[in-house]
Amino acid sequence: MSAHEQPATDMSPEEFRRQGYQVVDWIADYLAHPERYPVLARTEPGVLRRALPAEPPAQGEPMAAILADFTRHIIPGITHWNHPAFFAYFAISGSAAGILGELLSAALNVNGMLWKTSPAATELEEVALDWLRQMVGLPPQFGIIMDTASVASLCAIAAAREAAGDAVRRDGMAGGPRLRLYTSEQAHSSIEKAAITLGLGQQGVRKIPVDAEFQMDPAALAQAITEDRRAGWRPFCVVATVGTTSTTSVDPVPAIAEVCAREGLWLHVDGAYAGMAAVASEFRWALNGCERADSVVINPHKWLFTPIDCSAFYCRHAAVLRRAFSLVPEYLRTAEAEQAAVRDFMDYGIQLGRRFRALKLWMVIRYFGGEGLAARIREHIRLGHLFASWVDAHPDFERLAPTPFSVVCFRARPTDLPVGPEEERDAYFDALNQRLLDAVNATGRAYLSHTRLRGRFALRLAVGNLRTTEAHVQTAWDLLQEHAARLHAAGRGGAQEKAEAPWKG
Ligand SMILES: Cc1ncc(COP(=O)(O)O)c(C=O)c1O
Known about the structure:
With about 500 residues, this protein is of the alpha/beta class. It contains 16 helices and 11 strands.
């Protein structure tokens, strides 16, 4: 690439305007037709790396050439989370309002570490998080935006450890009491990762069994705490989940809060996905009991149409969180006279530098309004329940978990198998469903993911994208039925030739 004329500073405003219009046009076209792409990227490991020069360019290149490479090389390697038939993990979408917010925050490029490093960034964060808190029905409390729920939960557990005393902040963990945290066996891996990171170790996490509906058993929790105290552990924190990752089950937070109050333990609630359901009044129950939690995290980047990343972390003990994290070097000191009037967000978490994430969240909330957001969440739940009803009505499919929100766990389970040991039938169903998942995803017309429930391979269909309609859910269902029938017939065909049960084929 030959050198081209560039101003000595940055791109000229005229060129920015020209390129910017092109980029916005590209985005508008993309969002209008994400279905022209396969949902799951059709690529192989290393394709992009090989397509790009190994060495950085010594001379600047024209933006037009860079953007051409974006569409030529980058886009084919993208899995399209914006595709309305993206049903994997927790489906998300960055709404247009949120994208515009990201653009403006990139343009301002402020660092909101202190109030004074951009007062509006801090105050908008306070306002937007307070709006969101009201929308989901949490009581007034401190709120801060973190990048992810993983980091928010880590900070919550650090605050819980601080609240337990023991001068861990000063002395570290060595030689102190053996601290233990409790969470259900269905909790997200971020909780255990936080424990590893904070030096509690995996031994410092006790996983509490769940009931038939995948919800933490509060009696088992109480018993575990008693046993641990006798064995010399120091229980300090319980993490309940509102919307577990596999099945979206909701732990009984009121009963867990009762145990925590009795035992003097910090209660953190991970509501990364399902906390947002509470925006719709008939799903307010999802956060029942959370008014008693010491901290709660909910994720606008999961189910509130805010571009990733944006996680809302609420804490009823801002002073404890501050005690856990505040460490102020002289050059960042806020004048004493100002300290009482302002919040320096760097004091409440790990990072110093902070993006202006509140702008996109504020714009999303304003653009849709509380009722608009609730209507979209309600529709996603309707679609999830509709899909669940199709599964329930089909003789060769079964649901593997309740469907409280917009995620359905299910599997193909053909009924025409010869009688045989349950484990062998399950092994056949596991293999069949794995092949079914791969086959449906390979069509590029829908993308689902999986989990394992009580040892069984389960398919997961998650509705959460703004553009998903009933037609997209129907397409996924048609594909699932068609490929399940084909794969099962092939399995049975092979089995008949060998005159054996298909799971032996
Ligand atoms: C229940 C739950 N908690 C936490 C997380 C982690 O979220 P993040 O990617 O924001 O760290 C997830 C991710 O799916 C989740 O399902």
